[in-house]
Predict the 3D structure of the following.
Amino acid sequence: MAHTRSHTTLSVLLLAATATAQLQELTLKDAMLKAGTDLGPERLPQLSWVEGAATYSFVRRDTLWENGIGKMSDHVAATLTDLNRDLPDSAKLKAFPAITWESAARFRFQHNAHVYTWDRGRRVLHARVRLLPGAANEDMGEGGRVAYTVDNDLYIGLPNEPQAVRVTHDGTDGIVNGQSVHRNEYGIEKGTFWSPDGGRLAFYRMDERMVTTYQLEDIGSKPSSFRTIRYPMAGQASHHVRIGVFDLATRRTLFLNTGLPEDQYLTNIAWGPDGRHLYVVHLDRATTLARLVEYDLTTGNAVRTVLEERDERYVEPQVPMHFLKQRPQQFIWTSARDGWTHLYLYDLRTGLVRQLTTGAWNVKRIVGLDARGAAVFVEGTEVGTGFTGAGAIRTQLFRVELSNGRSTALTTAPGTHHGTLSSDGQYVLDQWSSTTVPARIELLDARTGQGLKMLLNSRDPLSGVRHGAVELVDIAGQDGERLHARLIKPGHFDSRQRYPVIVYLYNGPHVQLVTDSWLGGAPLWMLHAAERGYLVFTVDGRGSAWRGRAFEQAIHRRLGEVELQDQLHGAAWLKGLPYVDTTRMAVHGWSFGGFMTTSLMLKAPGTFKLGVAGGPVMDWNMYEVMYTERYMDTPQENPDGYAASQLVGKCDRLQGELLLIHGLQDDVVLPEHSYAFLKDCIGKGAQVEFFVYPGHAHNVRGRDRLHLMTMVLERIDRSLRPGQ
């Protein structure tokens, strides 16, 4: 019997070795260039509900497919050949375009400076609007109207009209119309806002002539040229914003009388259902008071303050009010006033009606409302903050009754769920993944969450690739706080060996790196790095997203302090593992993560042998007003906090090796940050390495990203030498 068992064991080992040998190597090139294709989970591109119908559509193989409730087989709605049939040879589409359904009979798309509509019944393509050369920031309104900008002026294209309507005439260097303002903070993503009937257009006008200029070098010309940007640094002059409302019938613009101070933030614009009022959230520059103000559009004057939000540290209005169609006097308001992001039902006449959602969890997004206006559907984190309940790392779908706030979990499978509600509010498309589910799309009953149809159940895209395990772990932080972390091991992991470690981090506001989603939220390059012989580790410390207000606001006025403590808790946890080589640890991060990387190398000397910091903030005095003053107050108000967080002047504390990387045209974290740190290093004789990416802004994107990660990992190899 002993001989038989030995023979069987040997056979199993041989089979396992053969199977492993047949697996393909995960190259860095494939990890970077095929993450969204061959090595990514299957998808249904452009999956969306058909407006006004109980059917959905998606694109596959240059064809728009459609299906519906209870139907088993997909049918063709339109093909690329259909669309190209009516296009001139010089304007043929090369792939099926991004579409928007306007009704069950028609969809639109933009191509070659035109907005086209496809009539399904007549199977005819119609050129609805022609845009001017250089058009950008397109925004579609009712009736086929299109708002867009050319340079710094605003235009409107009308259906079947050869001439565009010019809304503004003063756009120039320092005057910007129709574009996002306040550097895209506080939920601002665009600069134009159509009225419900499409007859009027609200827009931002930004005067930034008083803001400091900065020159970014472009070596694409000979000699090189310089692009001038306006960059408001903390404590310095900020831009002034106004809101105009253009009436298409009269061709006149009314500017709101938003009052003083001129450097306040005007955010979260919403039209009233009657089209006669506009609602704007005023946020003071100190970011401690937000006011929702109602404006009369006959005079441009403020009517009243509907509600206020206060916080001694900061408030962050991110979501406009959401009016109820059936009860136009009522709206849903998003607030973190009780310590968690929740929904509140308000009435314009009587004020707060009730708090709709409560508890130790966060509403992340409003998915929509049902047709009767009886319930709101949301994406939210799971209740609880500990790892056993997953808390922040999971996202579920909920139905919340407006009459009493009672909530129903429509999804319960562990993972990260994203919902799309049908126009009648009866069905939800649930697109989700987890650490064990690459991608799944299910059709759900929006009342109960009952599964009605499986649209997609993706195969494992890495089944033929050699890779290791991705583990989500829960580690101890400060004062018993639990921190969510991710550990990636090599496919050849042996607990009897000791491995070098790459710690990848961000740990800044509004970012969450560790999630219960495919690969735990990790990019494929991390799996490749593990196969090179590393453990790859990430922890979301205090300040990161979706753990509640107290967890996020812990960084206030002292950026880089509590975050550094939590990263060191992560390093201590790693050092407690018997298979970690504590003498060979590297840390890498970008932007806020670059700031954290450099901070760890200077303030926790000896913890890491190497740091690789990309686009790092080195001095918060030189970062933008809207972000920095929210978390740090002004340099005049908080000189000690700025001095403590500043990394320029502290290079003499460096122990170990440091590589800095910066884009030459970085307009987010200006190249001056790295240059100032380098000058300090030169003056003090500190040796660091520096690499510049000409032509790139804050992030190195496209095919050059392969060059970036090749450089990063080869540099880590030279210091940590896996297998040595």
In short: The domain at 164-320 is CATH 2.140.10.30 (Methanol Dehydrogenase; Chain A). Residues 1-18, 385-389 have pLDDT under 50 and may be disordered. The first strand starts at residue 48 and ends at 49. The chain is about 15% helix and 35% strand.
